[in-house]
Amino acid sequence: MFKTNLRSLIASRKFSSGNNKQVNGAYDVIIAGGGMVGCTLACALGKRALLSNLKVLLLEGNPSSEFRVKPEYSNRVVALNQNTKSLMNSLEVWEHVEKMRLQPVRYMQVWDACSDALISFSSSDLQDDDVAYIVENDVLLCAIDKELKSSNIKNVDIVYGAKISGYDLPKINDTKMESTVKMSNGDTYKCQLLIGADGANSAVRKAMGVQYLSWNYDQMGVVATLHLSEATENTTAWQRFLPTGPVALLPLDSTRSSLVWSTTHSHAKELLKLPEEQFVDALNDALWKQYPRRSVVDTCTSWVGSCLRRAGLADGAERQLPPSIRAVAPSSRAAFPLAFGHSTRYIAPGIALVGDAAHRVHPLAGQGVNLGFGDVKDLTDFFADAIYTGLDITHHTWLEKYESSRQRHNVPTQLAIDALYRLYSLDIAPLVLARSVGLQLTNALYPVKKMIMSQATT
């Protein structure tokens, strides 16, 4: 059983800086990393009735700061699915997001630059639920932080500006499961359960010594905030697969969209250096330019389209036209490297990984942070079940259930996204034909398309 005397130590909430030894002590759970996933996990541990008596410490490397919504949008956004919305609603975070800003996606169109093939999704495919919600990273983190610091949560301490110098982790044969977190200022924290939410370069994962499968995509993601040529309802997400990588527009409001353009390192660096007008021209070309076509591909896709029409199925001929871009918001352009990563183990004695510490994906499907929030939901569910049945909080049974559940979901999703990236990165006629016909058939067969949407929202 976990130590009940630890729960008696909770007299009041404590927030400190990394140079303050006030919170130095012992905890049931320590979360290393206060990003979106780490903060959401801390919030869930405070909100869940069965978990609210645990003493929890959240270590965040950045200093505490007050966030204010600015007129201009941030260039870093996330596309949240319905399951993430449900999680945020259960934590009373979503109402904070709505009071700031978000943009629903009610329609999505994905098409190939090397053929006429496309696939579209709409809210009607999800019983009129929105396909996704575009939220700025800062807005979502602020909303989570507001609820985390509310009077409803009394068992979570937070250390801002926390600089971790190392970990002493328990061994398999240790009778006492206890991790020690050593800080650069000399503080030491001990816990029974250590959770690594410290990103793709996770120090917790490295301390575990588990194998981490990773590779770089030789691509960078160029992001920016865009001004559209004319105001529209703008609830459509657009993605075009170019030979160099996908370019996507995510709606922000009636006149603005967020750009995520995956391209080669050299091209990304060139795009960042271009004057604003030339950058806008390059982006409009990427969305509208007619790329060289192969007659065999056009002939086959045309024949497949006619067969679908005769069968009374959608042939993909009806399509929306993407918006034109008028300008790019000043100083909003940036780029980040793209990579794949997966930890072969999510757990070790007294340790669990969540979010990017456990897995990393290409942004083309917008699933990265949603996988992390799925980790949070499953981890807290299994954690609560373990405590309800009288298991110790470090018991291997519930930790293994968590790992098994998440890997069964995350690994196929990661591999499917990686396969899509590789399929569309090659401009070889047989592959272009195969992916084009596959896209046509998937778009025409509603049960298949619905299954894809269902998978994307879990």
From TrEMBL:
- One Pfam short name: FAD_binding_3
Indicate whether Transferase appears among the record's keywords.
no
Per UniProt, the enzyme's principal EC class comes to oxidoreductase
Q: How does it sit in the membrane?
A: Peripheral membrane protein
Q: Which reaction does it catalyse?
A: a 4-hydroxy-3-(all-trans-polyprenyl)benzoate + 2 reduced [2Fe-2S]-[ferredoxin] + O2 + 2 H(+) = a 3,4-dihydroxy-5-(all-trans-polyprenyl)benzoate + 2 oxidized [2Fe-2S]-[ferredoxin] + H2O; a 2-methoxy-6-(all-trans-polyprenyl)phenol + 2 reduced [2Fe-2S]-[ferredoxin] + O2 + 2 H(+) = a 2-methoxy-6-(all-trans-polyprenyl)benzene-1,4-diol + 2 oxidized [2Fe-2S]-[ferredoxin] + H2O
Please name the InterPro entries in this protein's record: FAD-bd, FAD/NAD-bd_sf, Ubi_Hdrlase_CS, UbiH/COQ6, UbiH/COQ6_monooxygenase, UbQ_mOase_COQ6
GO molecular function per UniProt: 2-methoxy-6-polyprenolphenol 4-hydroxylase activity; 4-hydroxy-3-all-trans-polyprenylbenzoate oxygenase activity; FAD binding; oxidoreductase activity, acting on paired donors, with incorporation or reduction of molecular oxygen, reduced flavin or flavoprotein as one donor, and incorporation of one atom of oxygen
EC number assigned by the record: 1.14.15.45, 1.14.15.46
Task: Tell me which domain of life the UniProt entry assigns to the organism this sequence originates from.
Answer: Eukaryota
Which segments constitute the FAD-binding domain?
A: 186-269, 331-408
> Which UniProt keywords are given for this protein, alphabetically ordered?
FAD, Flavoprotein, Membrane, Mitochondrion, Mitochondrion inner membrane, Monooxygenase, Oxidoreductase, Transit peptide, Ubiquinone biosynthesis
Needed co-factor(s): FAD
Chief localization class? mitochondrion
Q: Where in the cell is it found?
A: Mitochondrion inner membrane
Which pathway does it operate in? Cofactor biosynthesis; ubiquinone biosynthesis
GO cellular component term of the entry, any: extrinsic component of mitochondrial inner membrane
What family is this protein classified in?
Belongs to the UbiH/COQ6 family.
Q: What binding partners and quaternary form does the record give?
A: Component of a multi-subunit COQ enzyme complex.
- Give the protein's biological function: FAD-dependent monooxygenase required for two non-consecutive steps during ubiquinone biosynthesis. Required for the C5-ring hydroxylation during ubiquinone biosynthesis by catalyzing the hydroxylation of 4-hydroxy-3-(all-trans-polyprenyl)benzoic acid to 3,4-dihydroxy-5-(all-trans-polyprenyl)benzoic acid. Also acts downstream of coq4, for the C1-hydroxylation during ubiquinone biosynthesis by catalyzing the hydroxylation of 2-methoxy-6-(all-trans-polyprenyl)phenol to 2-methoxy-6-(all-trans-polyprenyl)benzene-1,4-diol.
* Protein name, as recorded: Ubiquinone biosynthesis monooxygenase COQ6, mitochondrial
In its UniProt entry, the species of origin is given as Parnassius mnemosyne (clouded apollo)
- Name of the gene this protein is made from: coq6
